[in-house]
Write a structure and sequence with these properties.
Keywords: Signal
Helix content: 25-40%
Organism: Ruegeria marina
Strand content: over 45%
Number of helices: 1
Order of helices and strands: HEEE
Largest sheet: 3 strands, antiparallel
Number of strands: 3
Shape: elongated
Mean pLDDT: 80
Strand order of the largest sheet: 1-2-3
Structural class: alpha+beta
Distance between the termini: 34 Å
Protein name: Lipoprotein
Radius of gyration: 18 Å
Low-confidence stretches: none
């Protein structure tokens, strides 16, 4: 296994072990928006995770 792949596996394992295995649960969030105007339609949205004071949001 290459050093980069090994580092990635260790980092993902650490991230997953800290994501609510015990203690406060992780709270998922989903949002979607559709806008209609004279110039067309616009679709946007995003997903997020929150645990305590830490929040991660990815929009599209």
């Amino acid at each position: 296994m290459t050093p980069i792949r090994l580092s990635l596996v260790v980092a993902v394992g650490a991230l997953l072990s800290g994501c609510g295995a015990d203690g406060e649960p992780v709270q998922p969030t989903v949002a979607a928006n559709v806008g209609v105007s004279g110039s067309g339609t616009h679709v946007s949205g995003g997903v997020g995770l929150g645990k305590g004071p830490f929040n991660l949001w990815l929009g599209f």
